[in-house]
Amino acid sequence: MSDLTGHTQTAAAPLAPEPEARFGDYVLLLKPRVMSLVVFTALVGLLVAPVPVDPFIGFTSILFIALGGGASGALNMWYDADIDAVMRRTRGRPVPAGRVAPEEALGVGLGLSALSVVMLGLAANWVAAGLLAFTIFFYAVVYTMWLKRRTPQNIVIGGAAGAFPPMIGWAAATGSVSLEAVLMFALIFMWTPPHFWALALFMKSDYHEAKVPMLTVTHGRRETRRQVLIYTLLLVPVSIGLGLTPIGGPVYLAAAIVLNLLFLSGAWAIWRRDEDAAGRDDYAVERRVFRLSLVYLFLHFAALLAEAALRLGGGA
User: Fold this and answer.
1) 157: containing domain
2) Which of 96, 122, 246, 315 is least crowded, fewest Cβ atoms below 10 Å from its Cβ?
3) Whole-angstrom Cα distance, residue 225 to residue 240?
4) Are 167 and 276 members of one domain?
5) Is residue 314 part of a domain?
6) What pTM value is reported for the model?
7) Integer Cα distance of 94 and 106 in angstroms
8) pLDDT, tens digit (0-9, with 9 covering 90-100), for 99-145
9) 2: helix, coil or strand?
10) Model confidence over 164-202: pLDDT tens digits?
């Protein structure tokens, strides 16, 4: 094809259309699997508190705590889009995959943060709202922006963000924080390092390629195995101690003893592992312990719910 001057024009190749965001992409932006843990532990914190809560206030409190957790996830995806694009486990997320623009993720995160904190304060109390605001700040700024790319202690210190929900639920019910709430916090806080380091051991190259200073990258896999065992040993007295408080009891203690024996056995097996042998069987032990860690935390909080139900039935 020629223009009026006789020069030949080449038709421009059409640009590939940008992938369109769907509703499900915005849901994924809120990290629904992480949010499910937030909702469950916050709900347990609210229900085991020694103060009855109006069902509507309880529902709205959990809803806004969940939205606050989702806001943290959106802010994390906005900031970490560059490393998420490198890691196999995260490259399909909405922002690195190009389905949601970074500025959209930031807007969703900031908007939901403000909405969740204000509405929790109005629905429940401002102690719970303040704890939720601090949790969002801690996860988005302290962990995501500061610790994650700078220190192998990122998971240890950053784990506090995931440990706050039961404390927030307790505060929503009582307007205060007590020993029971602190021990529920401590249970998740001490559980987080062995849980994530078990994952890091079999996600062999992701953190290295993304240049995230996970313990496996900075101190080696042998030291990571040792730290899994150390933190599991430190977790046991926290788990048992929670059972000795007014929200514990024989059901919880029985569950805690069995779960701790299983988790300790798994951590011991990880510590004893030879790296070559682990590689040959595709890190089967590490994968098993990671899955066990999920069951471990869920059943601890389920046992707290069972104790609360038994107390309620006994008082009826």
Assistant:
1) 23-175
2) 315
3) 23
4) no
5) no
6) 0.89
7) 13
8) 999 999 999 999 999 999 999 999 999 999 999 999 999 999 999 99
9) strand
10) 999 999 999 999 999 999 999 999 999 999 999 999 898
